[in-house]
Amino acid sequence: MFAVALAWPATAGALTTVKVGGFFPSPTYVTAPPGDAHRLFVVEKGGRIDVLHDAARRRFLDVAPLVDSTGEKGLFSMAFAPDYTRSGRLYVYYAAPRADDPVGDVLTVAEYRRSATHPDRADPATPRVLFTVDNPSGGDPAAGNHNGGQLQFGPDGLLYAATGDGGAPNDPGDDAQNPASLLGKVLRIDPRATGAKPEVYASGLRNPWRFSFDRATGDLVLADVGEHEWEEIDVAPHGTPAGTNYGWDCREAFVAAPGTCAPGPLTDPVFAYPHPEEGCSSVTGGYVVRDRGLGSLYGRYLYTDYCGGDVRSLALADPAGTDSTTGLVQKSVVSFGEDSCGHVYLVKVTGEVRRLVEGAARPCPDPPDRTPPRLLVARKFRQHVEPHRSLFVTAGCDERCRVAARARIRLPGRDEPFEAVATASLAANHGAEMRILLSPQAGRAVRRALDAGHEVTARLRVTARDQAGNSAVKRRRVLVLR
Length: 482
Description:
Elements: E1 15-19, E2 27-31, E3 39-44, E4 48-53, E5 56-62, E6 75-80, H1 84-87, E7 89-98, E8 101-114, E9 122-135, E10 151-153, E11 159-162, E12 186-189, E13 199-203, E14 210-213, E15 220-224, E16 230-236, E17 244-245, E18 251-252, E19 255-256, E20 271-274, E21 283-288, E22 301-305, E23 310-314, H2 319-322, E24 324-329, E25 333-338, E26 344-348, E27 352-358, E28 375-378, E29 382-384, E30 390-397, E31 401-409, E32 418-426, E33 432-437, H3 440-451, E34 456-466, E35 471-481
Parallel strand pairs: 13-17, 29-35
Antiparallel strand pairs: 1-27, 2-3, 3-4, 4-5, 6-7, 7-8, 8-9, 10-11, 11-12, 12-13, 14-15, 15-16, 16-20, 18-19, 21-22, 22-23, 23-24, 25-26, 26-27, 28-30, 30-33, 31-32, 31-34, 34-35
């Protein structure tokens, strides 16, 4: 897929990783547009996004002047609209500076558009802020973390964003349990709706740095970074309505915590693991593997710990009974990512993006061509049927296509219309005049109708079909004269 991935040292069947794209200054996320087999986008903490287009690396977008990248803040992630190929809409999630509050920040989700002149660049002049979440420090120097940071479209076509509880130990503002606060939540919004406000989809979260949707089932899987004792993984099965409360800050995983619970039930994590007796712990959530090339991991959820580095997997149907190491150890993994066909990547804050492979790696296949040809049709509205007993139409496509031009003429006193058809194979961007020859019987009937003073109209239906089987249709009318 990329120039650095042409030679693969892995033994067949061995799980390993391969570096992609060279060095990146403090990368935070990697993703790709739906259906794009040739591009991978790397998000950097400082506010820049690079695109790897096959062998070429280019700067796609630079929002560094808008971003506060101190501490745990920065440009967190990006997401492409499901119809990105057509609309060019993309979204970024970053921490913006907060006036007179260097510790606090303003969580910001903004829309940009792809450049109209270059597919590997965004237009920096097109930002539209969807929403912001104020995250004040309250003068607490420990409050500059727990920002969340994941941005991803769900199977419902809505844009989901995770926010942290605002930092400082034990969520002193009790934001995660406060339904009026947007902190410590998973939010969702329809980004196409002008003026839409984000809905609270889930609450009770401390620092949901990374979540993902299983591309096969639509389930949301979220890893929430713990406080004192536990790291947890939460699941919202596809179709779960808004309102799930995962318990923080009145509970950490399965253990009571100092906060006050909001009214209503709490939802247990599906999996949790304890902190080591010494040292740090910070879960980095990944993806349910849907890459058939990772056969030993297919259908299993990947995660790791930023501090530990053991890349692990589990089956969400039985997490505790299936949790096991993959055998890979990768320190400082800040994120996982997927490309358009589900290949899985590790993002290391030390500057590396690495793809997980088992044996020989294969690039994403080009998606099936489902775009109909652009069909152009021209004809004279008034056409004489004699002396050629024919009607004429000019057709052309923007790609190689086969065209059928069918004429239907309905005459007074006759139940069934006369039909005639002409076909042609056309090269891309080349038009051709097509002659639709009427049968002798149809020619005589048309002449009789015209001699009797009737108006005769031919309805033309021109169909173009490309090599992938996609079709386009244009309809025209012709006033038939003798």
